[in-house]
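Cross-check.
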Amino acid sequence: MFFPIGDTNIKYGTKPFFAYAFIAINMAMFVWQILMPATQQQNFVSAYGCIPLEIMHAQDLFTLFTNMFLHGGWVHLIGNMLFLWIFGDNIESTIGYFKFILFYIIGGIVASLTHVFFNLGSPIPSIGASGAIAACLGAYLVMFPTSKIKVFILFLFASINVPAILFLGIWIAQQFMSGYGNLGKTIGTDNVAYWAHIGGFVYGIFCGFLFRSKAVAILKKESAH
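Predicted model, tokenized:
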């Protein structure tokens, strides 16, 4: 098992306020969620999670937005926030506050719609920020392909630096294989909405090409100092 623990941060861009603000909001929402009685928690997730069957009938469309601030457990939350902390800040530092907010929220909505498309008729609510975060990963791949990602390898109890293009390439390949393997099921056998990840990632790649010139300009500035 391996997971990222850091990356090469850019120094001359906008301070990444909202990338960290989204982390704080997600953590606050989760604490509020787990403090509810068990039955109320279930009702809360059903009310604000994205249910494909409802979206198909144009019901509760607001859940395409609200679901990205809910999580199913501490592991789910910490994993998502770790990825957002590592990959989201460089995106915001490059494109600025307002564009990052729009990029992140639209990424989450696109991810949710992709999940709905591949799970038509499912009554199971989908929750989590991973679709919006996958958008950050896709944009990062295009904007910072040679950035070094520090990866912790659990069985070696050591970390190594790998190029972003390699780490993110492996990550999205895993999502495609798992998504394909779970086609026809209402959700992955491990309760992961893989197609939401894929939808967010593809959207992020598209946006990454729109933002790449700004990333190149910042990287040139940093290399000159």
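The chain has one domain: 2-223. The chain has nine helices and three strands. Passed to J.P. for a second look.
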